[in-house]
User: Fold these one by one.
Assistant:
Number 1:
Amino acid sequence: MDYPLLDVFLTMLWFFLWIMWFMLLFRVVADIFRDDALSGWGKAGWTLLVCVLPFVGVLAYLVARGRGMGEREMRRARDQERAFRAYVQEAAAPGPKTPGTGVGTKADELGRLAALHDRGAITDAEYERAKAKVLAV
């Protein structure tokens, strides 16, 4: 069992390059199907090219549409951030009303705000504004 250190290094290098290739391939395929501006025929054509001639297809996709991949990814991240913030604001809105009064007590609202703040769902500034609003009512 003679396996020199350089051969171990080269084997590890090829293995990690192989992993990187598959990550790139999956990212390109995911971008093809996530792109709303690309028509169905365009998606089918790019997918066929990437599947039949993987190296040529991926490199051609990166040359032709590589800049848009980053822009689409940033847009998706911004949309997810907006959706998360909207959810947090919705969750911080006045909650269930106490029976008979039709209004939640200030202590209930302050407790809910404190819980959101402790979980990190709202910032210190948002917590202070909401607390001041509850106490002002």
Note: The mean pLDDT is 87.
Number 2:
Amino acid sequence: MKLDKPVTGGPCWTELGTSDVAAAQRFYEGLFGWRAETDPRQEAGGYTVAHLGEAAVAALTPLYQEGQPVAWNVSFAVRDADAAAGQVTEAGGTVLVGPMDVFDVGRFAVAVDPTGAVFQLWQARSFPGAGVLSAPGALGWVELLTRAPERAVEFYTTVFGWSVNASEHYTQWGIDGDDFGGMLTMDDKFPHEVPAHWLPYFAVVDVDRMAADATEAGGTILMEPTSVPDGPRIAVLRDPQGAVFGVYRAADEK
């Protein structure tokens, strides 16, 4: 991910909806060195922001709705949440929540693309999103896993105007030449009950050490540390409450 700060159309924030915020906080603080602060206002619903130094990098929240899965969610920056929500609908997606104001910090909506992947729209006011991207411990890549890649390309290029860099095995999303994410086609290796979804990857210094640390802290390795040819070293992990996330170290980082 070449983006080091939020830009319009790109990923700007990631939130974990979890069944045990306190346990998740301990797990991710141990892995990434985050410092978590919970909004004390009752109307904030226990919203907890994780920081690296003084920079906000992610959030942890309780499960707000019955049936909500334990999962990481990805937000994309937009200039106008209402207009973007309209574009989502016109392109064949569905708006699940909002658009609605979040205090004075911004306006957001929750949507699902035509292939079944949930994502969020964020119109910044006082809060632009992550204070840092692509640094160790921060969001560094976002990946769409879907069973209908052609429909996904049609949808996201229409809604966000992303560029598409496709190869035989992988498709990358970009903005003005800066790739920030990719798309993986879900094949028979994925259980049928696993829906299309967005998967956040966090930058780390040592992927192998991070995978080992996650296991020692009660997590699970879903994909062992692997070096992508001419690409990063990556691993996919699951936290003790069941949320899946990735870690990576870019190939050009020594």
Note: Residues 72 and 136 are 18 Å apart (CA to CA).
Number 3:
Amino acid sequence: MSLHDDTVLVLKSYEDQAELRQAYLDHLAAHQDGMWKACGAGHITASGLVIDPERGRVLLTLHRKLHMWLQMGGHCEPEDTTLSGSALREATEESGITGLTLLPDGPVRLDRHHTPCAWHLDVQYAALAPVDAVEAISDESLDLRWFAYDEVATVADDSVVRLLDATRARL
């Protein structure tokens, strides 16, 4: 099964945000290359909010290009075989934390936003950090920092706050 086909199945089983979910499915139906950065009409991205529920905190990255505190995530790669695998890969690469596990039951939220490269149709997962998690800044980050749940709204935009709220509701 291709990453494109896996993403269609993931989106079809996602039960929230019906209008936005349909827009993602319509995009993939219209663009066979809709998974890839090269698709100028926009592309699917995968992200993972790294969360430590035991300590009531999340790990955010200060994005090198956007200069914003965000969850880990980005473009799908040719070696990705599943959308969840893409999200986990991005979360692991950008956090430096090994042993992350995705919350079960698929994506937590969808978020469509414009970036310098194109529209990102982001499929957002949540990744649980192991108890002994040690983070490490990647080349894509200016900084990496743990924030208490109630601090997130003071540093990040509404999309990250909505993702955190949805993730906490699922925990």
Note: The mean pLDDT is 96.
